[in-house]
DNA sequence: CATCTAACCTATTCAAGGC
DNA sequence: GCCTTGAATAGGTTAGATG
């Protein structure tokens, strides 16, 4: 009982989607776009998805990972990054592109929400199969289901921090068997 | 086995729409 | 005007492929 890795147990049981293998041609276009615009808006991501024939959600993840890698490299090797890139433009108004072009907010119906919440109570960390089945059931893309679970978990954590005890009653876990 | 990186995670913030 | 909540972000972790 010394080690407490509750999240790890959850993660270990669920199943990931198959790892995407981008071709050289796809990567060429992705990298090229990234160098021009590391924060593409929704329209750009949709266009990219068509152009390289990949799911838009995979493109979004690719940009996230690429930015993280770049900022990490910049932290570890500050001088080399300076030389290779003419970082003239400051990164302050960088959101102006992305925020202008966001994906339209998904409006869930009450019945869709009932299904999501029920599934969440059953398992807050659904694998790819569960997410896709759920997406099909309520008629939204799988990527929206994933984001919904992410937001739901985050808010549950935040709420739990604020009110450590009272939440337990609201959740009404019918049985958390060890 | 070491390295790379897609997939996934939490935490936080932005912003649309309802009250 | 504030609140709820979907969408986007940063930054960290996990795991599949490859030399």
Question: How are the elements arranged and paired?
Answer:
Blueprint: H1 6-13, H2 24-36, H3 42-52, H4 56-76, H5 78-84, H6 95-100, H7 110-122, H8 128-138, H9 142-162, H10 166-171
Helix pairs in contact: 4-5, 8-9
This protein binds a DNA duplex (19 and 19 nucleotides) through helix 1, helix 4, helix 6 and helix 9.
Can you give keywords for this protein?
178 residues; mainly alpha; 10 helices; disordered N terminus; disordered C terminus; DNA-binding
Would you give an account of this structure?
- This protein is mostly helical.
- The protein is built from 10 helices and no strands.
- It is globular.
- It binds a DNA duplex (19 and 19 nucleotides) through residues 7-8, 11-12, 14, 16-22, 39, 42, 58, 60-62, 64-69, 71-72, 95, 98-99, 102-108, 125, 128, 144, 146-148, 150-155, 157-158.
SSE class: mainly alpha
Distance between the termini: 12 Å
- What is the general shape? globular
- Major sheet description: none
Task: Give the uncertain stretches in residue-range form.
Answer: 1-12, 81-99, 170-178
Give the beta-strand count: 0
Tell me the β content.
Answer: under 5%
Number of helices: 10
Radius of gyration: 20 Å
Q: H/E order of the elements?
A: HHHHHHHHHH
Mean of the pLDDT scores? 81
Brief account:
This protein has 178 residues and is an all-alpha fold. The chain has helices spanning 6-13, 24-36, 42-52, 56-76, 78-84, 95-100, 110-122, 128-138, 142-162, 166-171.
């Amino acid at each position: 009982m010394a080690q407490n890795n509750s999240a790890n147990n959850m993660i270990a049981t669920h199943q990931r989607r198959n790892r995407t293998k981008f071709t050289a041609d796809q990567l060429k276009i992705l990298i090229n776009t990234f160098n021009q615009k590391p924060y593409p808006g929704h329209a750009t991501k949709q266009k990219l998805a068509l152009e390289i024939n990949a799911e838009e959600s995979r493109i979004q993840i690719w940009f996230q990972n690429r930015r993280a890698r770049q900022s990490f490299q910049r932290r570890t090797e500050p001088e080399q990054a300076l030389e290779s890139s003419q970082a003239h433009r400051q990164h302050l108004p960088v959101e102006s592109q992305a925020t202008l072009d966001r994906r339209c907010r998904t409006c869930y119906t009450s019945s869709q929400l009932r299904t999501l919440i029920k599934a969440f109570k059953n398992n807050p960390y659904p694998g790819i199969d569960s997410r896709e089945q759920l997406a099909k059931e309520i008629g939204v893309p799988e990527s929206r289901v994933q984001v919904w679970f992410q937001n739901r978990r985050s808010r549950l954590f935040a709420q739990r921090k604020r009110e450590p005890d009272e939440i337990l009653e609201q959740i009404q876990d019918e049985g958390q068997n060890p």
